[in-house]
Amino acid sequence: MRGGSPKKNREHVRLNRTQILVALISAAAAVAVAVVQFRGESKQTPAPANAAASILISGVVVSRSTNEAIPRAAVSIVGRTEQSITETSGSFRLEIKDPSPQNTYRLRISAKGFRTVDQSVRAPIDDLVLALDPF
């Protein structure tokens, strides 16, 4: 039989269902962001010359132990007002108006039943995966 036995081939491509789910959620979030940006670009009027740019941080929050999405997790930027609550898919989106010159931010992620985590990130980023440890 060409290509080896079917059993051996199945073992080679076996993926954890959770890994597939996280990959699909990340891809869907990226597509949704691209569609929103594309639709917004065609309707936007030029910003005034003195208007500050904004940048985006988006991604998904998952449980480190199960890789499952965590809905209703709070994602905020320490020392700033920007914050987001994750969707049922675990996805979040933070738009930073008046970004810092370094574009480095400290995110604080918290959810009921999980330890709060602070993580530094460099923006913009749209495929961030933030993992929380359960209590």
Written overview of the protein:
The protein is α+β, with helices and mostly antiparallel strands and 135 residues long. It has one domain: Immunoglobulin-like (Sandwich). It has helices at 6-12, 17-43, and strands spanning 54-63, 74-77, 83-85, 91-97, 104-110, 117-122, 125-132. The strands form 2 sheets. It has a 4-stranded antiparallel beta sheet with strand order 3-2-5-6, with no helix packed on it. It starts with 5 loop residues before the first helix and ends with a strand. The model has no long low-confidence stretch (mean pLDDT 80).
List keywords for this structure.
globular, four-stranded antiparallel β-sheet, three-stranded mixed β-sheet, Immunoglobulin-like, alpha+beta, about 25% helix, single chain, about 140 residues, 7 strands
What coarse outline follows from CA principal-axis ratios? globular
Q: What Rg is obtained from the alpha carbons, in whole angstroms? A: 19 Å
Question: Largest beta sheet, briefly?
Answer: 4 strands, antiparallel
CATH class: Mainly Beta
**Care to count the β-strands?**
7
Class from secondary-structure proportions: alpha+beta
Detail the poorly predicted runs.
Answer: none
Number of helices: 2
User: What fold name goes in the CATH topology slot?
Assistant: Immunoglobulin-like
